[in-house]
C-alpha cells in the first residue's frame, strides 16, 4: 500500500502542476482597461479550486477505481497507416485555424 500511495501522490502532484499551467492563462489572467493602459488583474480562486479538484481526484483515484462503474468508450475508426499522416495534418490545421473563425464575430465589435 505504501508504494501505491506514493505513486498516487506523485501522479496527483504532476497532474496538479499540469492543470495549473493550463488553467492559469485561461482563468487567472484577466485584462482590464485602466484609462490608456491595459492592466492584468489576477483571479487566483478558480485556479486554486481547479488544482485542488484535480489533486483530490487523482489522489483518490486508486481507491475509487474499484467502486465506480466501468464506462466503455466508443472505438475510433481504424485508418490505413499511410492515411494517418494526412489525417493528423488535417486535425492540426483545423486546431490552429478554428479559434480565428469562432472568434471572428467579436473582432468586429
Word description of this protein:
This protein has 109 residues and is mainly α. The chain is 69% helix and 11% strand. It has helices spanning 2-28, 44-65, 81-102, 104-107; strands spanning 29-34, 37-42. The chain has a two-stranded antiparallel ribbon with strand order 1-2. The longest helix is centred in the N-terminal third of the chain and has 27 residues, at 2-28. The radius of gyration is 21 Å and the shape is flat.
Annotation keywords:
about 110 residues, mainly alpha, two-stranded antiparallel sheet, 4 helices, flat
What's the layout of helices and strands?
Layout: H1 2-28, E1 29-34, E2 37-42, H2 44-65, H3 81-102, H4 104-107
Antiparallel strand pairs: 1-2
Helix pairs in contact: 1-2
**Largest sheet, described in full?**
2 strands, antiparallel
Strand and helix order: HEEHHH
- List how many beta strands DSSP finds: 2
Strand content: 5-15%
Rough outline: flat
Let me know the average pLDDT: 82
Alpha plus pi helix count: 4
Please identify the structural class as seen in this structure: mainly alpha
Radius of gyration over C-alpha positions, nearest whole angstrom = 21 Å
* N- and C-termini, Cα separation: 58 Å
Q: Tell me the strand order in the biggest sheet.
A: 1-2
> Unreliable stretches, pLDDT < 50, 5 or more residues?
none
Helix content: 55-70%
Amino acid at each position: 500500500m505504501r508504494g501505491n500511495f506514493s505513486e498516487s501522490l506523485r501522479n496527483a502532484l504532476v497532474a496538479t502542476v499540469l492543470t495549473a499551467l493550463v488553467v492559469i492563462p485561461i482563468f487567472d489572467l484577466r485584462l482590464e482597461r485602466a484609462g490608456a493602459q491595459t492592466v492584468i488583474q489576477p483571479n487566483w480562486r478558480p485556479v486554486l479550486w481547479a488544482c485542488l479538484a484535480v489533486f483530490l481526484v487523482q489522489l483518490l483515484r486508486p481507491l475509487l477505481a474499484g467502486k465506480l462503474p466501468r464506462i466503455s468508450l466508443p472505438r475510433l475508426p481504424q485508418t490505413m497507416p499511410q492515411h494517418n499522416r494526412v489525417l493528423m495534418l488535417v486535425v492540426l490545421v483545423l486546431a490552429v485555424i478554428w479559434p480565428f473563425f469562432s472568434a471572428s464575430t467579436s473582432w468586429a465589435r
